[in-house]
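Example 9 (inverse folding). The structure is encoded as follows.
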């Protein structure tokens, strides 16, 4: 009997799943990918793209070519819900899509609903495609008005790569970085935090640590003012929002087991803890036995085990648990053609050699993707 496998989202895990189904075709399965975009940026090269080291074509994953390679139907649409009883995916602009097995690999979005003005006047770092539209517009404005100095605010100090890449990508720029925690990059070792703080200070990034943004106000002259609980107010031209992530409300509404932020709870097999025929990977998944950061490196690492378990589910075979790395190299792009490498508590100062190493890894990953 023909099995219908539907993939929701064109994230890194699903890009690898499509590649592997293309390399190892499986009979008796009808494969479909539902995603709103034909292209998805590879997160490993995104900071380099913003800083001007890569063109968009060098770091985008062509989902149409991948789908063709995997003999998968590509449905360009937004998913708005699930009918789990009848195993149907509800789409915004086309008929429902039936499934026997479902896999979800979609992006999270920064949480900003509780801050007045944030939804209306700020730009979320995710989804990436939407962020890039605003970034390209900002670059165009800078070219049109080369004498005007732009003031950019980034709310959420965890993404220092974004601040440093933006500085490299646009001249005559001032950046204000707001972080509710008194420590920059609180999830990293203090030695890494110290090095990154020095790098940001040397680039004249204005750090506002321990400041909680409570409102974003649009001014008559089209500028924006950020207001903090402490009374601090900063006027800027653009605000990028990169605070803690959350998931789309339609997931929890569908009845899948999720955590408080709406992320799908999965076991070591990357299966939903409430619906074994549903899998999840990448930002949208929350492994119940591991605390993993929402980083592209883990989405890439989950690609192969996700494929193997989807294949095993189709064939009626036993699934195999995925065991994520407990120690891994964190490569932080500093926007100047250098990278800070960090493993556990051992930071290695930013250097061009680490950039060359990272560049080689990223280009090799992209080279494996089929192109028309």
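The amino acid assigned to each position is listed next.
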């Amino acid at each position: 009997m023909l099995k219908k496998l539907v993939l929701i989202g064109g994230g890194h895990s699903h890009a690898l799943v499509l590649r592997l189904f293309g390399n190892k075709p499986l009979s008796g399965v009808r494969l479909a990918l539902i995603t709103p975009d034909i292209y998805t940026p590879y997160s490993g090269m995104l900071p380099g793209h913003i800083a001007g080291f890569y063109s968009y074509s060098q770091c985008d994953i062509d989902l149409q070519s991948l789908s063709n390679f995997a003999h998968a139907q590509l449905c360009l649409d937004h998913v708005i819900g699930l009918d789990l009883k009848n195993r149907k995916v509800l789409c915004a602009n086309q008929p429902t899509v039936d499934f026997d097995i479902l896999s979800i690999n979609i992006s999270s979005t920064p949480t900003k609903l509780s801050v007045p003005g944030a939804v209306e006047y700020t730009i979320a770092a995710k989804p990436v495609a939407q962020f890039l539209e605003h970034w390209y517009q900002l670059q165009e404005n800078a070219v049109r008005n080369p004498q005007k100095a732009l003031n950019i605010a980034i709310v959420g100090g965890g993404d220092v790569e974004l601040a440093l890449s933006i500085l490299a990508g646009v001249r005559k720029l001032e950046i204000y970085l707001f972080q509710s925690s008194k420590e920059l990059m609180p999830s990293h070792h203090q030695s890494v935090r110290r090095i990154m703080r020095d790098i940001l200070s040397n680039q004249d990034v204005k750090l506002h640590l321990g400041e909680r943004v409570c409102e974003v106000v649009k001014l008559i002259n089209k500028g924006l003012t950020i207001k903090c609980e402490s009374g601090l107010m900063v006027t800027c031209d653009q605000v990028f929002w990169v605070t803690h992530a959350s998931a789309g409300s339609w997931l929890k509404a569908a009845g899948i087991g999720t955590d408080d932020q709406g992320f799908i709870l999965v076991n070591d097999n990357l299966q939903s803890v409430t619906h074994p025929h549903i899998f999840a990977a990448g930002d949208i998944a929350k492994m119940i036995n591991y605390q993993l950061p929402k980083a592209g490196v883990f989405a890439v690492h989950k690609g192969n085990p996700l494929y193997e378990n989807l294949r095993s589910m189709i064939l009626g075979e036993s699934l195999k648990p995925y065991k994520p790395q407990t120690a891994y190299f964190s490569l932080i792009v500093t926007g100047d053609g250098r990278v800070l490498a960090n493993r556990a508590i051992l930071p290695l100062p930013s250097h061009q050699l680490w950039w060359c190493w990272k560049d080689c890894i990223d280009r090799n990953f992209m080279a494996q993707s089929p192109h028309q």
